[in-house]
């Protein structure tokens, strides 16, 4: 089974759209790094939470992607716009539709 | 923006794989009901939690899908295998990769 994770983060007030733009801008290079799905969503429960669901061919490719210079640069720009509250669930992908 | 949701459920001990099979079996008909993504994952934190991430063209199509006879039958078979602990996050899909 492939590796997946579901993560959440919270943007500081008024900055959610800017963080989402950063995340979407970083998505371009992920395919060749081994990513099959990268889904960014805005919580409807509040105006600060962002959900990211990812599927990777292997967990090692996911971990390695965080060390890419573009990823580090994007993370560096995003962190000051975030509250520091994160959640993350790792999972083994069983399958589904649209992958 | 399209509608998405991230849900979790917990299977009774030893029944997670059976519930996952039910969920995956129900995935076939979802595309024509308006579903673009239906991702089923097994939590790596424990042996009971199942995560489901969905993307639908509209929220109305998602809600209507729960009323389909096949869906009701699958839910009826799954419920006795679940603990009753659910979470669900609704979201507006901002975009990403692989959709």
UniProtKB/TrEMBL annotation, chains A, B:
A GO term, aspect molecular function: monooxygenase activity
Keyword Transport (UniProt): no
Superkingdom of origin: Bacteria
First-level EC class: oxidoreductase
Keywords assigned: Monooxygenase, Oxidoreductase
Record carries keyword Zinc: no
Pfam family of the protein (one): ABM
PROSITE patterns in UniProt: ABM
Enzyme Commission numbers on file: 1.-.-.-
InterPro entries: ABM_dom, Dimeric_a/b-barrel
Domain (ABM): residue spans on this chain: 3-91
Signal sequence, start to end: none
Official protein name in the record: Quinol monooxygenase
Record organism: Streptomyces lienomycini
Taxonomic path: Bacteria, Bacillati, Actinomycetota, Actinomycetes, Kitasatosporales
